[in-house]
Structure formats: C-alpha cells, structure tokens
Amino acid sequence: MTQYIKEQTLHACVINTPACQDDDTAYIRAETGEEENLWVIYDHEGEKLGHANSREMAFAVAYQNDLLPMDVH
Questions:
Q1: For residues 47 and 2, what is the distance between their CA atoms, to the nearest angstrom?
Q2: In terms of C-beta density within 10 A (0-12 exposed, 13-18 middle, 19 or more buried), how is residue 36 classed?
Q3: Above 70 in pLDDT, residue 54?
C-alpha cells in the first residue's frame, strides 16, 4: 500500500526579538490577514515580534526564542 504525504511549507517570521527582557512570555493570537489567517506573536508589552501561518509554528518559534507561549483570545 502506497501512502502519499502532502507537502506543507511552514513559514514563520520573527522580528524585533529583544536581546534581554523582564518577562519571557510570548502571547500568540490568531488574526485574519488579507489572504490567510496568521498567528501573531507578541511580547509581554504587546509589541509584535513576528507571525506564523499556524498555531503550532507560532508556538515552536516562541520556544526556539526562549519564550513561553500563551494563547490570547
């Protein structure tokens, strides 16, 4: 039996990552873009750090930048 796995390209962008911050929490929130839904990553002061095309990728990016991700509604 042959199984086919659909390839998926995951994109994430992190910008303005502070070198030192008091709080290591990243807040993840879904936002609707012009063409697609994005998961935006914010720091503890509400500054946008970056975005990803899936919640899982947003959490992974936060972890890779030594931040603790939390959902925001």
A1: 47
A2: exposed
A3: yes
List, as own/partner pairs, every contact residues 40-47 make where C-beta atoms lie below 8 angstroms and the sequence separation is at least 24, other chains included. 41/14, 41/67, 41/69, 42/72, 43/18, 43/67, 47/16
Tell me how far the alpha carbon of residue 41 is from its chain's centroid: 5
Instruction: Cite the DSSP H helix spans in the chain.
Output: 55-64
Q: Tell me, what's the pLDDT at 32?
A: 86
Residue 59 to residue 69: CA distance in whole angstroms: 6
Task: Kindly report, residue by residue over 2-24, the tens digit of the pLDDT.
Answer: 444 334 444 455 545 554 444 89
Q: Strand 25-32 and strand 37-42: pairing? A: antiparallel
